[in-house]
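Sharing a chain and its predicted structure for anyone who wants a worked example. Both blocks are below, sequence first, tokens second.
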Amino acid sequence: MRRFLPPVFLLLAAILWSLGGVLIKSIDWHPMAIAGGRSAIAIPLMLACIGWPKFSFSRAQIGGAIGYALTVVLFVFATRMTTAANAIFLQYTAPIYVAVIGSWYLGERALRIDWLVIAIALGGIALFFLDRLSVSGFWGNIIALCSGLAFASVAIFLRKEKAGSPVTSIILGNVIVALAGAPFMLQSSLGEGGVWRLALLGTLQLGLPYVFYAAAIKHVTALEATLIPLLEPVLNPLWVMLTLGERPGPWAVVGAAMVLGAVLVRGALMITRRKRDPIAV
């Protein structure tokens, strides 16, 4: 693979992932049905492009699949209940949870600077709740935080099974979501406009980005792997604002900057630590 292709693939993955907010908000269907339909469409595309994965059904692989399934479902619910900006930025608190839980579950010691970064991120999270929120918006924020926690569990379980492929747990997680969402899909019909939006959600927004991600992730630098995916939380609310006119509250914007800054600092610290200690993972 040519050197310039992996970063380009990662960039394309981030851009396509960012379409989630506008597509989810445009489909008039139960959130569970949207999540199930999206995953059902993504599975054959991923299998066709990546091939049949090797399932070990280890505890770490199953844990990663369940964590991914919860992430997908909770993110759809959060996007429907609160603003797209709140949903995606609160999900991107996952690296902060990884720092906390990883020190306990993986035995990876957190440094003082890690706790400072976590404190800044927590302050940013609190700001999301200072804007005027409806009851639905408040609980949407809570669900988005839970989505971030679930997302963190995926990273932790995949680190536990270091020899495994992340795509394997992702495909298995999509199977879980598709099966769980099937009863909800059967309860109501989806209009013609909703059908093509759901098709885009399953192919362009979920299936294809993971194909790009799987092709790129082993060939990019740690810095590229940390920074390029952060385009998703920036672009996601931008597409929603441009197409649907939804704007995040002023406190949410400040909170988002704090969360994104904390995640960036955390990523930079991890890269520096790995350079200092090549054995560290």
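Comments welcome. The chain has one domain: 5-276.
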